[in-house]
Amino acid sequence: MDFIRPTSLAEALRAKAEVPEAVPIAGGTDVMVELNFDRRRPPALLDLNAVGEIAKWSEVDGRIRLGAAVPYVRVIDELGDRLPGLAMAARTVGSPQIRNRGTVGGNLAAASPAGDSHPPLLASDAVVEVASVRGTRTIPITEFYLGVKRSALEPDELITAVLLPPADGPQQFSKVGTRNAMVIAVCSFAVALHPASGTVGTGLGSAAPTPRRAPEAEDYIAGELSALWQSPAPLADSVLRRFGELVGAAAQPIDDVRGSAAYRRHALAVLARRTLGWAWHDYCEGRVTACA
Amino acid sequence: MREKASTFAGEPEPSGPNRRTVLVGAVGAGVAGTALAGVGVGLAAPTTAPPAPQETLPVTLTVNGVRRSAPVDPRASLLDTLRDQWGLTGPKKGCDQGACGACTMLLDGTRVLSCISLAVLHDGQEITTVEGLVAKGEMHPVQRAFAERDGFQCGFCTSGQVTSAVGLLKENPRPSRAEISELMSGNLCRCAAYSNIVDAVADAARGER
Q1: Which of A89, B64, B117, B202 has its CA 20 to 30 A from that of A245?
Q2: ipTM score of the complex?
Q3: Residues of A in contact with B111 (CB under 8 A)
Q4: CATH code for position B102
Q5: At residue B107, what are phi and psi to the nearest 5 degrees?
Q6: Which domains does chain A have, with CATH numbers?
Q7: Which of A5, A33, A98 is closest, CB to CB, to B186?
Q8: pLDDT digits over A148-180, tens only?
Q9: Taking a C-beta distance cutoff of 8 angstroms, is the pair A248, A268 a contact?
Q10: Which residue segment(s) compose the domain that B73 sits in?
């Protein structure tokens, strides 16, 4: 197995063009499990740890540009105020040791339906920035996931960053697992309130072949909230429940070792009802959720 | 026990037979016995050629303050490299998939799981294992707290627990008990010494005992 260690993005893209089968590795927390158990024998590894361009975040034209190789711990420590939904999800990834190394870019590249980053990225209309020697392009997050562990990334492309608008309203994330730490999600859900546009974003994880949104639930709740953004009042329990039902209906889960499809659908409805309740409560209190 | 005590006290390895050399010898004898039994029942020796030697890359790491270099298989985990190349067997291989925390090391002071990291990724970086926590023959305060609070039973997870706790206290020097449980959640203890582990980390954070 070859080991390629570029020290700049240009060099990394040239290497990826020359050896498209090379597996990019940053924290290694996902790739290494596959190597250790011989599930994958890549001809080459492309080490991205010395590519400085993708290891930082910045604010560009009013959006946060989060470099693909920024570890979760930095999302939690440095972006909890601006990207609260993503920071909450990052806090549930693996363990502290894994959060010190694992990255959102790696989560995207793996494109597992259970990845914790995906629901908040969907809920806040993230855009994935990818690059190759042919140039740079952006992929809306809803078009990024194509199937179980399949994405719109071309073989010669690398994920360089994810672009997100900073939160303009409360955001929440919740996940069901067999315990609090070190679990792959049985199902997960993110919600983002956008008072400026009067819309609500959603993201479902471990609920279908790909992470996905719940458009009907979003339309329903946007309608219910349209009269309330200016004069916030508590939401009726029936509204929260209907939102939850629509989220559950948007799922297309499977039975597997982590849970049954029926359980997932039910749990998603509960997560959706609760997270919307928390987010709306925060909105009524005039708070933009900060990542605790 | 003798080996553990010597590691804690920072003494040189005993020169006579110790647990490890006895075990290695026993395993070797077991393999030889199996091979002989195979010959006895007429099993043919494997005919496939031995695998070609792997390509290696030179890797230099500063491990517990000592610069070490070795040719390393690019597929070798940081854990295997430290254990097999340099005999640093403090970090344990529990699950080899990043789920148990027994292989926790400090990488430039930050705790990481060495079983799901490659040695070649960390060329030039600084590694601290449990062996490196002892200073001038004195146990690290976290080690002492674990000993005094009985923060273990069988001891297999302990080197990872201790190293993880050292990293935790660097990240958060004044954790609450709830935070300790949360922030130690990447280290499993099948003996379930958790309450004593939390006590030990809390003691170490207070600088008591």
Answers
A1: A89
A2: 0.91
A3: 96-97, 100
A4: 3.10.20.30
A5: -110, 115
A6: 1-48 (3.30.43.10), 171-284 (3.30.390.50)
A7: A98
A8: 999 999 999 999 999 999 999 999 999 999 887
A9: yes
A10: 57-208
